Amino acid sequence: METKPVFSTYSIYSKFQSTFFKEYPNTPCVYCGKLLYKDKATWIQYSPSSDLYPIEESNEISVLTYATIRCGILKIPTCFSCPRPRNRLQFPILAKIPEEIEALPLHHEQIFAPGQAYTVLSRCPNWDNIQIAALDKAAFKTDPDVIKEYEHLEILAQNPLPI
């Protein structure tokens, strides 16, 4: 028996594809980075001779990525308060991800193993309950003097203290 695609599902899917990304602000202000709706943004003339815009300085994003040509003039988006310098907000500086971490395939490596080991060791009474795939138990070393001191303290704890 052949199954036919359900028309209602297809119509919901096509409506989602055509409207979903238009319903949310997706254009950043070139001064403060605030996300704006394209129709509510204030569009100012792009000046290539001026210094870098804050969004270009801190995040290396080209202002022209969000530019539009209106009436033959290249315009860039700003929010309502940013054309007035006294109201301008500081653009947040985003921390860059080091290339070593960015290139790391997460499905092959347990990057949280040291943190997991620290948490597990503080909560499990013995090694039998610890199960971390990348944890090498031989890497943990204990000072023999510390072991002797703990054994000595256990012996002392068995004898009651004199009153």
Structural commentary:
The protein is an alpha+beta fold. It has two domains: 24-87, no CATH class; 102-154, no CATH class. The protein is built from five helices and five strands, in the order H-E-E-E-H-E-E-H-H-H. It has helices at residues 7-19, 54-59, 99-102, 113-123, 144-158; strands at residues 27-28, 35-36, 42-45, 68-70, 73-78. The strands form two sheets. It has a three-stranded antiparallel sheet with strand order 3-5-4, with no helix packed on it. The termini are far apart.
What would you say about this model in short?
The chain is an alpha+beta fold and 163 residues long. It has helices at residues 7-19, 54-59, 99-102, 113-123, 144-158; strands spanning 27-28, 35-36, 42-45, 68-70, 73-78. Strand 4 (68-70) and strand 5 (73-78) form a beta hairpin.
List the topology elements.
Layout: H1 7-19, E1 27-28, E2 35-36, E3 42-45, H2 54-59, E4 68-70, E5 73-78, H3 99-102, H4 113-123, H5 144-158
Antiparallel strand pairs: 1-2, 3-5, 4-5
